[in-house]
Amino acid sequence: MTDTVITAGVDGSTESMAAVDWAADEAVLHGTPLRLVHAWLWQPLNVPVEQERETEERAAHAILREARDRVARRHPDLPCTATILPDKAVPALLHETRQARSLVLGTRGHGRLLGFLLGSCGQQVVAAAECPVVSVRAVDPEARPADDAEVVVGQQGTPQESAGVLEFAFQAAAARNATLRAVRAWNLPPVQTYALTGLGAMEEADGPVPYEKKALSEALAPWRDRYPQVPVVEHVELAGGGPALLSASAGARLVVVGRRVRRSHFGTHVGSVAQAVLHHARCPVAVVPHA
Domain spans of the chain? Predict the structure, then answer.
């Protein structure tokens, strides 16, 4: 992850403009420039339909101009560039993730019960991005989180596996002077696991709850030392990862979740926990790739 620039993808929708606002605020918080991008590729059709390249190109530039003007009104002193990417949306945005601190995208609302629709483009980008991707949706100003709302992060696996996720979350909390709530969810292991391990790590820790609390504390320790100004709440819960994070994120300013970098014969995947949080959290969600 580099600290050079925060990038926002813009398509002219209300949701993408909300992403522009969030990305601009984030750039100010971290003292980095903002880069606005819009993917547009002229693709003539082999059908008798009138197409005007100049008209479409002007429309693409107008989308970026509106976004850049919006940033200038919000943060007049923020360094901001706006660029047309001559490619299809997914490959263009994935290329941007190679050089950005984070990529910010808009999420379309899809009803309180059904959650929020990230869209096929957004899902493909989140699943294969090389930097954290933040999903932002347009919200009612009256529903914005309180100034003292927490940043929530999901921690799982070993300290090494969750290092990138925790680094992003601690940086976000420090920039906002916010409390960080670190959530580690666990489930009872199957009977055969106990049979295979015998008196293993869980037994040595006097049961699964102390074991999980110890694992969370060990993962957080180096980051608490690096960011001593960040208040941390350690939250261990018997639940699935998605439900635990969604419950903890009520009223939060940001949720940070990891995505394991791996490929299968069916392509890249976001992961069930990240997918659940992306679709149902009511605040911005950052998905951070990790080994």
Answer: 1-138, 145-291
